[in-house]
Amino acid sequence: MDKLIIIDGNSIAFRAFYALPLLSNSSGLHTNAVYGFTTMLLKLIEEEKPTHFLVAFDAGKITFRHTEYSEYKGGRQKTPSELSEQFPLIKDLLKAFKIPQFELSGYEADDIIGTLTKAADARGEKVLLVSGDKDMLQLASEQVTVAITRKGISEMDRFDPEAIKEKYGLTPHQIIDLKGLMGDTSDNIPGIPGVGEKTALKMLHDFGTVEEVLANTASLKGKMKEKVEEHAKSALMSKELATIYREVPMETEWDSFRYDGFDGQALSTMFRKLEFKSLLEKLDFGAVSAEAEDLVVESLEAVAVTEANIGKLIEQLDDHAAIHVEAIGENPHQAVMVGVVWFIDDGADNTSYYVPFALLQSDAGKPLRDWLSDASKKKQLFDLHRAQLALAWQGIHLAGVDFDVLLAAYLLDPTDSNLSLSALSVKYGLPSVKADEDVFGKGAKFRLPELAALSDHVGRKAMAMARMVPVLRDELEKGEMHRLFYELELPLSAVLAEMEMRGIAVDAEGLKTLGVELGKQLDTIMSSIYKLAGVEFNINSPKQLGEVLFEKLGLPASKKTKTGYSTDAEVLERLAPYNEVVGQILHYRSLAKLQSTYVEGLLKEVRPETGKVHTYYRQTIAATGRLSSQFPNLQNIPIRLEEGRKIRKVFVPSEPGWYMLAADYSQIELRVLAHISQDEKLKEAFLQNMDIHTKTAMDVFGVEESAVDSNMRRQAKAVNFGIVYGISDYGLSQNLDITRREAAQFIEQYFAVFQGVRRYMDDIVKDARRDGYVTTLLQRRRLLPEITHSNFNIRSFAERTAMNTPIQGTAADIIKLAMVQMADRLAKEGLKSRMLLQVHDELVFEVPADELETMKELVPEVMASALKLDVPLRADVDFGLTWYDAK
DNA sequence: CGGGTCACG
DNA sequence: ACGTACGTGACCCGG
């Protein structure tokens, strides 16, 4: 049997546009609506397997409805240019899909669809009609199913007449009456003012049609009767406007909608232009497009090196080369080595040499190992940090790396969430490489392919990497980020790898003891909660907890999440006065977190041989330039509450008689703000070394220092936080639990005093709009394409990001500088002290007793002088036998 | 594998 | 009118 899919083109394009973030490709073309449209088409083709297909569009301009009602669709926002520029792309896309398109001047897509579904009905063919507009429900029939998008575009609700009956108690045709009564603000159809969906449905259930409702106003009551009578004409006109016209004079020849598959060639070209990397990979055009002439595929001779031919590679070793280190696994401290690849480009031929790791480690591999460790042999690679760690665990010290493709790509676009070689080769228009996932598989299906395929794949990775080096080097130069790259990030990679290899010692016995105590407390609290609640349930399940609190115990639910009641700490704290159990649950939650994440989780990461944990700092994740930490995350060890803070006691020196020493920047973000904004008041506060929150309270409340009480200081502190985050009255009001009006007043008073800060906030948003990005003091860059988005929320988010990123990012620049300088000083001065951790504004060291005095001076000195600002930087230092004591 | 929650700066 | 504070990672639950 045939099956026709009809898509309401304008409606789906709008839906996709507003549902997805404003994506754009590297030439600045917006692509989110096209992307959403594409994924929907692919999904429909795959799941529905249509035999016939078409998309209907509004032809735009005036339709016959305007001639009847000039206000039709009035008051509707102009289509944002970010969307209208995408319509031509969608039309090209449909051509590549080989899906027929219909539009007819004077008619809307609705009418074309109405006419076509009528024809299909008459022929007795199955139709699936896809739209975001509930009006379409009037076209449902035994033959025609209407799918309405829900929550964005990925999910749809399907309606046949039965489903419409179930949901609204109406026939498809009565949908028109529904709209006649309630109107439709988006089309500026008036309906009857004051009649919403509920009232309209009730009337229709009683009377059936608009006409019958009007004929029976006598049985309506009071205000409603007046309203209906007064707006009777409007209701009739609205009904007429809502009626889809089904007699458009047009070709309805069934066979002209036949769908026999897309043009893979055209589609892959289209996807490449739009930079739909994931879709390109998903459809695997690799094979198809490799033959296509428009795609450059470089030839490569991929040599799998053996003991017999290793001499050929050794012979060719030069003073520089692109290499690729293939190691399997997310955690580089536990990576399984596959091998190392050398890419040799001698001008005539491209040759890659894949050296299996066992061979590299054998006697025959010695010259290669020496080459890797020779700092005078310059290497370019992808992900130096990871390669260095993986090799170090195998006893190979990697040195002399002068370019890292991953690091460069990150600096060029720190928000890119897919920085794989495969994705980058597409992004920078270079010969493509297969994704690792496609070659190796993933999860349980992961396996290395046979030698020839493996050596080809890793060889192509090395080649792609080599091709990317000059491109990215130029881009860094253009963005004035070469110093940031060569003088900061690249040296930092090595510093981080060194810190991580060293690891930090953990007192596992102490941790276990803590775990036993927590276990006892958890048992006690658990039984107490069950008793108070009168039922046993899984306290860790927000779903079950919600049911107990809000249904069984009948506590007032306030916040909702997508899936049900919210039970987060903020909600529970409000509920605490109602029932004793709530406080217990909060306590249970905090202890359970300590137990699962910080006792059990941390214990799993301790190496039994050394008693140390080795975190992995990620240098290419955070959009602002900060580091992040994994396996385990050592940047979120508890400190705010004493119960959790005790966890810090298990972080100890790795040598007897040594100390832990920690130094943290004081108010680095506000000091950075003072420097960037050049705000006189803020600068003055730091030049006089005042308590910044107290000073803010004095200025905002206009009082003397002695009159600032703890509450005023607390509020001033929240305002300072808000300023750094890109303030909004709503956010501040939530944080301080005050009204928005009060919050707005605070902000206004703050800006009245700190006028330079206000100027900075205004200017940085303007700059971001003009340039499309913001930068830190060291020229770190973050692209903000959404700063001009027509959607208020999306745009506001970008504006706050524009305000925050230069501040957070410059602070990140500064501590990174301090780390590189610190590593240098330790080496130069022959100190035995070791840098172990970075926690955004804090550095942690282990220090032998006889270096304590030196380090207490040196660390804060280096941190404070890492970068010269117009206000002083300050770092406070302390030491003790554990991290806990170095406070 | 996504959502909810919570730990940190 | 819109409905949010900025940046991360780990754990648990439940489909």
UniProtKB/TrEMBL annotation:
Lineage of source species: Bacteria, Bacillati, Bacillota, Bacilli, Bacillales
Domain of life: Bacteria
Keywords for the protein's UniProt record, in alphabetical order: DNA damage, DNA repair, DNA replication, DNA-binding, DNA-directed DNA polymerase, Exonuclease, Hydrolase, Nuclease, Nucleotidyltransferase, Transferase
Domain annotation 3'-5' exonuclease: ranges: 301-477
EC number annotated for this UniProt entry: 2.7.7.7
GO MF, one annotated term: DNA-directed DNA polymerase activity
Every 5'-3' exonuclease domain range: 2-260
Start and end residues of each DNA-directed DNA polymerase family A palm domain: 644-851
Entries under InterPro entries matching the protein: 3'-5'_exonuclease_dom, 5-3_exonucl_a-hlix_arch_N, 5-3_exonuclease, 5-3_exonuclease_C_sf, DNA-dir_DNA_pol_A_CS, DNA-dir_DNA_pol_A_palm_dom, DNA/RNA_pol_sf, DNA_polI_exonuclease
Chemical reaction(s) catalysed: DNA(n) + a 2'-deoxyribonucleoside 5'-triphosphate = DNA(n+1) + diphosphate
SMART domains: 35EXOc, 53EXOc, HhH2, POLAc
GO BP annotation list: DNA-templated DNA replication; double-strand break repair
Quaternary structure note: Single-chain monomer with multiple functions.
This protein's name: DNA polymerase I
Cytoplasm found in the keyword field: no
Entry similarity comment: Belongs to the DNA polymerase type-A family.
